[in-house]
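This week, think about what follows.
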Amino acid sequence: MGAVVVDGRAEQGGGMDAGRVRQLWHLLEPLHAVLYYAPEVFEEAAGLGYATDERWPSYFPLRAAPLGSAGAERVASAFYSFSPRMVAEHIDPAWKTASPEAVLRARERGMDRAYRAVFGDRVDGPEQAELVALVRRAAEAADTAGRPLAAANAALDWPDAPHLQLWHAATILREHRGDGHIAALMVAGLDPVESLVSFAAIGAASVERFESRGWSPEEWGAARERLEARGLVGADGVATDAGRALRRSVEEDTDRLAAAPWRALTATEVDRLVELLGGFWVAVLSSGLLPSETTLGIGKV
């Protein structure tokens, strides 16, 4: 799936430059991800009865709650790259511990506290309303057909507080991109575990980081053998030229599929949005909440 040509210029996504689409993802992803690492959110999750000695017992209900009381099979389908066993381990008891509605209320309370802790006076600063207006327009323009996690989040009521609207918009756009990424992986013929093995093979993150998603050594090894048979990785597990090309095509397709919401903004508005997001992005990264290595491959693909 290639670029389209506009006025003699090759562009992705029907006029939205692929580099700009990727930059907006890089800026917004950390703002969404605070949910899974902030102590304030862990406190709210613990108050519902979830274990918080590690992040997974709260991660699965916090992310899946917009789907309602979905079972493990449905959540594994939407999350894609997690082992179904790992999903079942955490989702099977999740809605017995607290209802999805209670989890949604808890994550909003937690994010209110977390954003206030991370952003300080910026939460009520003069640029907040301008930023929220722009990112909300993009989120509301997102077509959620065929995108279960984006659709589930988009169906929720918008919070009243501007800083929570920022988080909600970032979450819709993040899940919109993630749903599209799964479609790109499927087009590339990469099943859930193969998607991780092939990503590790290009150095997006360490094998150990990807293995945290619950696949057994036998499943990981079998996936690597399948990729080797396709000429995508070598015997050492490192991507071949063909493997790198396939991963590039996945990322290009993901960018293209993620571009549409941003076309609700003019180029000047996108430039302004990038400028406004910069300070919030720096604040999140400077907070030390997020891990230095993730499975997203930001900055490496």
Q: What stands out?
A: The chain has one domain: 17-286. The first strand starts at residue 4 and ends at 6. Residues 17-286 form one domain. The chain is about 60% helix and 0% strand.
